[in-house]
Every structure is written in C-alpha cells, then in structure tokens.
Design goal:
Blueprint (H helix, E strand, L loop, with lengths): L1 E6 L4 E6 L7 H7 L6 E6 H17 L4 E6 L8 H13 L7 E6 L1 H13 L5 E6 L2 H7 L4 E6 L2 E8 L4 E4 L9 H18 L1 H15 L3 H21 L14 H10 L7 H20 L4 H13 L10 H9 L11 E6 L2 E6 L3 H13 L2
Parallel strand pairs: 2-9, 3-4, 3-5, 5-6, 6-9
Antiparallel strand pairs: 1-2, 7-8, 10-11
The structure holds nicotinamide-adenine-dinucleotide.
Amino acid sequence: MIQLLANTRSKEYPVFLSRGGLADAGRLWSSLGKRGKVVIITDANVAGFHLAAAEASFAAAGLETSTIVVDPGEGAKSLEMVTGLYSRLFVLKTRRRDAVCALGGGVVGDLAGFVASTYMRGIGLMQVPTSLLSQVDSSIGGKTGVNIPEAKNYVGSFYQPDMVLADPALLKTLPRDQLVEGLAEVVKYCLLTGDAFFDNFEIGNQEFLALNTAYVEPVVRRCIEYKLRIVSEDERDYGRRAVLNLGHSVGHGIEVAGGYQRYSHGQAVALGLLAAVRLSQQEFGLPEEYGDRLLSLLELLGLPVRIEGIDPGEVLAAMASDKKADDLSANMVLLKRLGEPVINCDVDAGALRREVERLVAGG
Ligand SMILES: NC(=O)c1ccc[n+]([C@@H]2O[C@H](COP(=O)([O-])OP(=O)(O)OC[C@H]3O[C@@H](n4cnc5c(N)ncnc54)[C@H](O)[C@@H]3O)[C@@H](O)[C@H]2O)c1
C-alpha cells in the first residue's frame, strides 16, 4: 500500500493507493479515529460490482453503514438530486460526526462531495474513486459540485475529503470506453510532468490498456502525485492550478460545439492536447516531434486525432463563451517544454483558428 499526503491550506489528509485496498477501507477509515456512521453514496453500475465489498469492509471495522444508490451518468449531478440526498441523509439520522463515502467515478465523487460539504454545514467525506478519471483526477483536490441546466459544474464547493482510497483493481470492471476516457487525462499528466513519464507511457501504454497492475499502479501514482503538488500550491484555483487545464480550452470548445454528444470529455481533451502541443511549437519552439509522438500515442489508445462533423467556427465560438476562456486570445495553457506548462498564454486568434482547422482537416 502506498500512502501519499495531501497537504492543502484547508486540510491535510492521506491518499491511499492500494490494489485490493477496498477491502481495507473500513480499517483505514477507523485508523483516522472515525467512529460515526458511514453513508455510502454510489451509482447502480458501481454498486453491482463493488458495493458488497465496501459494505463488508466497513462492517468488519465495526462501522455502521447505510447505502444510497443513484442512477449512473452525468444527469445525477443536479440540484434536484442534491435535495433528494439531503432528505435521505436526514431520514437516516445522519449527524455531524457521520460521513459520506463517495464510491464511484467523478459523477458520484462530485455529487456526494458537494452533499457532504453542505449537509449540516459539512460532514466527513471519504473518496473511493472507481473510474480511472476519478482516481487520477477528480477525487483529488477537493472540487465538488453539480450542473445547472445552463452550464456544467457551476454550483459547487472546495471541500477536501478526510481520506482518499484509490484501488486500481476496481478498474478491471470499468468499461473499456471509460478507461480510455481517463487515459486522456493520463496523457495530459505525461505532458505536464515531463520527458521521462511521457517516454515511459509511450512504451507501456498497451500494458496500461491491458490493466497490467504492475504498470498501472506507478502511472496512477505519478498522476496523483502531480495533482497533489499542484493543489497544495493553489487549492482554490487562483493561478497555478490552471496548468491542469492543459488541452481543456480547445477540448471544452469541441465538447460544447458537439452538443456534449459527438465527443466525450476525454475525446475532446485528447484533441485539445494535440492543439495545445502544436500551438506550443509555434509559441515556444517545442520540438515538432512531440506533436507527432502525441498523435501516435492518442491513436494507439483509441482516442481521436481528428474532429469530424463539427465546423471549426463552432468550436471557436464555443471557446469564446467558455468560462475558462473569457478572452479567447489570453487564456490557454501551453508548454515551454515537456514538464514546463505556462498558463495564461496569449495565443493569436489566427493561430488558434489554423490549429482547429487542422484538427478538422486531419493530419
Ligand atoms: N472534481 C474535479 O476536480 C473533477 C475533475 C474532472 C472531472 N470531474 C467530473 O467527473 C465526472 C466524470 O467522471 P467519470 O469519467 O468518472 O464519469 P462517471 O462517474 O460517470 O463514471 C463513468 C461510468 O463508469 C461507471 N463506473 C465507474 N467506475 C466503475 C467501475 N469500477 N466498474 C464499472 N463501472 C464503473 C459509472 O457508473 C459510469 O457509468 C464529470 O462530471 C466531471 O465534471 C470532476
């Protein structure tokens, strides 16, 4: 078992990375001195595979548990769902000494985290991420929240959990497309972290796809460590944390322009990373080989390298109205070199248009 430490301004807490660690969840939680009831919030897919093991683990540690199962999918991240969960917690007589265990992907993590942060002005929270995206990204760093009809993730809080337990063995039941979804974020970390990690992942990516645990664990660890470091520097996303948006400006434009139907988040981020690396070549002289290597890597992972069925103008228009890009030409993350991201890059609108057009044309 690997134990990392999240060290943010608001809280210090352990992040456990352990294959088969779900069986240990109760013991680890108790070891933090927690004795109250644990309300597991999960979704129906995850419940089918992993709920029994989670419940057994808490029971073995002598902890009382209750379970709430929500429908899978982004639709669960709504204020209606939040209200319903408050009522369920109330009926279960959940009190301030009790805690929520978010057992699931990023949707459950964001939703249950937000509920835990606001119910009775905040109760305990344990994140047990079950998707790759949630293990390497969303469970770390304390961002919680839900969507409103007008926009995604517009209502939420910064609320650090008391503990995170990432168990890579849980990825075995994750549908392949969801694994690939998370791999887009892993590729982002490769670019952010530097040459050694990128080279390593370039060589071992098929082992990751095959979920060879000896390979998966160190990769997940590197991603978590990177995010922990950034979050410890800038918990509330005032500056440095923006490096994590690498690939997300163009990516978000693609997601929105496709009506959130044509391209998933991970697919859009993959395309956004390609645009960011190519713009980094022009802005900072990042060697061209990285664009080619990134393209090959994305193809090997089954991620798109070309935009189909969307007009470049629609992507640019969506970017202009994106909260992360109020001023289209002044808010992109680029790379001076691998491992050296630069935020707030003033990208020329013409250069941006050319790169988006290139993604549409392919090549
Ligand atoms: N808080 C943050 O910092 C942050 C960062 C990035 C993304 N997010 C949010 O994360 C969400 C996306 O997360 P996601 O990609 O994990 O999606 P998700 O939670 O919808 O999970 C994807 C699918 O996989 C299923 N699943 C999850 N784990 C499984 C397992 N082990 N076995 C079988 N099925 C499993 C889920 O039921 C779901 O159908 C978005 O809402 C996004 O806004 C939050």
